[in-house]
From TrEMBL:
This is Adenosylhomocysteinase. Its EC number is 3.13.2.1. SMART domains: AdoHcyase, AdoHcyase_NAD. GO terms for biological process: L-homocysteine biosynthetic process; one-carbon metabolic process; S-adenosylmethionine cycle. Belongs to the adenosylhomocysteinase family. It catalyses: S-adenosyl-L-homocysteine + H2O = L-homocysteine + adenosine. Its cofactor is NAD(+). May play a key role in the regulation of the intracellular concentration of adenosylhomocysteine. It comes from the Bacteria. Its main location: cytoplasm. NAD(+) binds at residues 151-153, 185, 214-221, 237, 272, 293-295, 340, 347. GO terms for molecular function: adenosylhomocysteinase activity.
Length: 418
């Protein structure tokens, strides 16, 4: 079996950690049990570009239980858990191409490795796999039944491709499922980003000024958790509606140039480029800590920071100290990459349970309905989103009401007035 991981001797530790995560993923477990009986993916090859974590491992195992031939590569050079990669290869026979800390050339060689398996279905996190397919393997891309995308950043890229008429197969935006972005982005990113900052720095958040750039679902989660830990939270935004929402939620709202002067911690979660730039570095306090929880390492202008610096050193794992020309020090976490996955373990399994349940069910949906789908980006079918929510509630022992026939009639009527 072809694979590329750091060390197979890490496999036993990875297996135990995969099992620990599985205990908190009851929705995916129920889908796996059905897949194991029905084998819907027999003869189907699935290539995935995802963060190689314990939760992702359980998705890969679920798809393989369903009969698929599965191949996995990392969607971020720093997010791979090497013990998990080893366990998937050694214990589950799943080819993995991922090493934590791999350079850019290795990262793309791993992408090419899973593409060359000629998949029928692709699963992406950030759209690097799909965009590489389109740029370098257009003939192969035309044969793919469909794909899924996990992140806001990736969905933006894929919708741009669809609007320009260059997308060669249908893609389901799993990121946009209510059971994904409302929970994964808000609760998952909120908790894991704080976790990553704490593991990297061991600094006290209470009493600090904590700046969150972007007030989408991820930004909301980070802002809520930082406030819960005692910080004064500042939100920066370019969208007036989101800025207004942040203000009404009780956060300070101001431009980044003003927030830069007072912030102790900074987190970017916008999906855009150069959110923290040269003019911001110039006014930051000595000791400011900057990090990113958006998908790509472009939100912090690292080249501008290096240009302003006279010295650079690693003072802790995932903490780089930049000394500026005037003696001020700015600390960059995880090289500007996803701090929650680079210096921590990513989202809790109970959150990823819903995200990856959506992935598994959408893969099955594509297999069944690909001939009716156009080359565009689709929302997750409502019935899948609802099914995931129902399974999650059942796993938590929560029951809800059902509409009565009278209520159903009332909601569908226009004749009943005051």
């Amino acid at each position: 079996m072809e694979y590329h991981v750091r060390d197979l001797q890490l496999a036993e530790l990875g297996k135990r950690r995969i099992e620990w995560a599985e205990r908190d993923m009851p929705v995916l477990r129920s889908i796996r049990e059905r897949f194991a009986k029905e084998k819907p993916f027999v003869g189907v090859r699935i290539s995935a570009c995802l963060h190689v974590t314990t939760e992702t491992a359980n998705l890969m195992i679920t798809l393989k239980e369903g009969g698929a031939e599965v191949f996995l590569t990392a969607s971020n050079p720093l997010s791979t858990q090497d013990d998990v990669a080893a366990a998937l290869v050694h214990y589950f026979g799943i080819p993995v191409f991922a090493i934590k800390g791999e350079d850019r050339d290795t990262y793309y060689s791993h992408l090419h490795a899973v593409i060359r398996k000629e998949p029928h279905i692709v699963i992406d996190d950030g759209a690097d796999l799909i965009s590489t397919l389109h740029r370098e393997y257009p003939q192969l891309a035309q044969k793919i039944l469909g794909g899924m995308e996990e992140t806001t950043t990736g969905v933006i890229r894929l919708r741009a491709m669809a609007e320009r008429g260059v997308l060669l197969f249908p893609v389901i935006a799993v990121n946009d499922a209510m059971t994904k972005h409302m929970f994964d982005n808000r609760y998952g990113t909120g908790q894991s980003t704080i976790d990553g900052i704490l593991r990297a720095t061991n600094r006290l958040i209470a009493g600090s000024t904590f700046v969150v750039a972007g007030y989408g679902w991820c930004g909301k989660g980070v802002a809520q958790r930082a406030r819960g830990m005692g910080a004064t939270v500042v939100v920066t935004e370019v969208d007036p509606i989101k800025a207004l929402e942040a203000k009404m939620d009780g956060f300070l709202v101001m431009p980044m140039i003003e927030a830069a002067k007072i912030g102790d911690f900074f987190v970017t979660v916008t999906g855009n480029t150069s959110v923290i730039r040269e003019e911001h570095f110039k006014v930051m306090k000595d000791g400011a800590i900057i990090s990113n929880a958006g998908h790509f390492d472009v939100e912090i202008d690292i080249k501008a920071l290096e240009k302003l610096s006279v010295g650079k050193r690693e003072v802790r794992n995932f903490v780089e100290e930049y000394t500026l020309y005037d003696g001020r020090r700015i600390y960059l976490l995880a090289q500007g990459r996803l701090v929650n996955l680079a210096s921590a373990e990513g989202h809790p399994a109970s959150v990823m349970d819903m995200s990856f349940a959506n992935q598994a069910l959408c893969a099955e949906y594509i297999l069944k309905h690909h001939s009716q789908l156009e080359r565009k980006v689709y929302k997750v079918p409502r019935e899948i989103d609802t099914q995931v929510a129902q399974l999650k509630l059942a796993s938590m022992g929560v029951q809800i009401d059902q509409l009565t026939p009278e209520q159903l009639s009332y909601l569908s009527s226009w004749e009943i007035g005051t």
